[in-house]
Amino acid sequence: MDRHHAAVAPRRGGAWLALVPLAFLGVFFVTPVVAIIGRGLFADGSLDLSSLSDVVTNPALRHVMWFTVWQATVSTALTLLVALPGAYVVSRYEFPGRRMVRALVTVPFVLPTVVVGSAFVALLGDGGPLGALGLDQTVWAILMAHAFFNYAVVLRTVGGLWAHLDPHQEEAARVLGASRRRAFLEVTLPALRPAIAAAAAIVFLFSFTSFGVILILGGPRFATLETEIYRQTAQLLNLDVAAALTIVQLVAVLALLLITGRLEGRQSVALRLRAARDTARPPRSARERVVVGINLAAMALLLGGPVFVLIERSLHPPGGYGFDFYRALNSLGDDSVLFVSPIQAVGTSLRYAAVATVIAMFVGGCGAFALARRRSGSLDAAVSLPLGVSAVTVGFGFLIALDEPPLDLRTSWMLVPLAQALIAIPFVIRTMTPVLRSIDPRLREVAATLGASPAKVWREVDLPIAARAGLVATGFAFAISLGEFGATLFIVRADTPTLPVEIFRLLGRPGPLNVGAGMAASVLLMAITAVAILAIERFRVGTIGEF
Amino acid sequence: MLSVDALSVRYGDFVALDAVDLQVGDGEIVSVLGPSGSGKSTLLRAIAGLVPDAQGQVAWDGVDLAGVATHRREFGLMFQDHALFPHRDVLGNVVFGLRMHGVGRAEIGERAGVTLERVGLAGFEHRSVAELSGGEQQRVALARALAPEPRLLMLDEPLGALDRALRERLVGELRTLFTALGLSVLFVTHDHDEAFALADRVVVMHEGRVAQVGTPSEVWTHPADAFVARFLGWNVTDAFGPTTRAIRPEDLHLDWHLDWHLDWHLGDVGGVAGTVTARTFHRDHYLVDVTLDAGDARGPGDAPLRVAVPIEQHPPEVGDAVMVAAAPGAGVTVSD
Q1: With a cut of 0.85, is the ipTM above it?
Q2: Listing from the earlier edge strand, what are the strands of the sheet with B29-33?
Q3: Structure pTM?
């Protein structure tokens, strides 16, 4: 037995690697969720559904639930409407700067939500170029911001598949007598349907759990489950109601995650896929050039417009262009109401994000290696759970669970980086695992036949490929931690706010200087995030590891 | 020399290799020939030490290699679709084995240059492997396997992914290269033309077992059993005598002129009657498939007889009634 055992097969051991993410999730995710459930469903040690039924029957809260679903549905429809033509253009046509467009379109998705919020405040609010339309503080502001934010989800999910669909199939339909329209409806659309459904489910989920955008743009008039949980906690100190609302939210999100998982699973039907470079071609007819041009212009307006206006207004204090708002970032702290200057918040944010990135890379890296070694659906599901669960749930859970022995982190600054890491870990795993899995086992075998010992095989084959994926994941984890708002808002100490929290405060304070400084701080945050994200695009190995 | 003794590999209930014996002498080129699923690739992987629970013995110069890990066996293996390292350029792929063997920097450069020259890729050092054509990738894979000077070079369908014209050219180049280097080579293929052209000795495999071993001419003239005969494109039939015989299409003759009835009745032609069901053109001859009429020596439903008709003759059309006759003494008796 085992006479020809070779040591080149990827070592099947290493199950302990999975223990790291599982233990982390157990302490920092399951414990808070259990605490929420305990708070919402139990009173004095026995099951008590009264606060839950109060919440479900309260007309005001029922309206909140209805609005949450409504705005998510309309946001999804609006996003699909504007982004599907864009997906077509980017995946089917070759034009100068296509790669750049693909990269830039992703920027809104990775922008911190407070930056998205303040960009739309800049665009639609007082003194903004669209201020006269009176859209500020209306539901339209929310819907537009969601379309802006989620455009990339549709473009990447649907466009990603579209770019790999064999154009010969549509051509075969045309040869068999189908009109251009029929060929699209009967051949291309059915092939794309799983991707469209998956993208729609993700956009719905993101809109459903949207927090920062609604808090900033919705004002007091529009509340979703997320913002209501925050209001009940922070303003009304009504923790039982908040817990009951969180349970409703948790159930809804779990159901959505299940549906999303189903739809994503169906996406992997056997389609004959082609390398993307074989399917795109330059626009040839005048009509095609017009289609490409219109879509690129729409992308520039929808995605570039708010960002451009944000930058422009941050540089435009009353009385002409200048850096007054940026100077204010340093001086505003002298004001007694603000404990710290925004520039100090930048330092806090960078420090927290760095710590969170280290944690996320360690925990997520262990998870990715464990997952790459064995396909485990349950482990897969477990580690991606926080991806969909809202940041508000995490923040609220941290607030009520980690404030008493044995784990009293209430006064520890570590609380914020831990929450940020928890939110970043699923992204790390989803970025790294496919790359690790995609390593052709024969590369290891051929390295062994060329004389590489198992350790050298790992160093020469696995590590160089994993290292690039690791860099990408590091950039993502850093950007996510830096921009994290929902969870941080619950648990951050008032005297050490992070930059997103500081931006939220500034935008909520009266006076053009505060709003202007908020915009300047948003530009700063956007710039730091953009550097991290552009570094990602630089290191990305092909398109493996997209999500 | 390589000697393989009673090598067996099982995957669950499936027997991939069943007690295979095989030798490759020093400087000998041996080809393993068989249809897909016959265990050829598993054989190479087991010899390389890549199959964890293979049973039986693999030995080099009489030394058992049990317990010797892949990277210490000094056997090169070239995969069918090359498995080039995507994160390294051409030179990075070629020098990989030299680096693993701790060859000095100066010598690495020199040997890599010689190897690239040898496979016709001088000047390709810093190209990305992803942008090479299939033929160029195949050459890089070959150079990578050759560079550390393995004591045995194994190739899995080395020309499988290439187009026909390129394949035919490379067969000649490979034979010249292997002979010039005095390499011991074991390669697998499903293409008998390739096997016969390249190899000193051919091993035909069938369902995990060795069906026949011999020189190309031995195998081609005396297939050991019905499977080998059919695999080589021979007819296996009992239409021409008491025993089952394997007969090449070239050794069957057709008579389809109007007077064949006359010949038949005069007893000049020993043959069987049938109908042409297919006809294909192959450079210097046609291949004509004849389904024998019911009630003849062979029952209907058997595979049609395939007959080669020289291009100089006008071949029969599909649907024509013909007589098929075997040349006297043609074919070999085989067991089914």
Answers
A1: no
A2: B75-78, B152-156, B185-189, B29-33, B201-206, B209-214
A3: 0.71
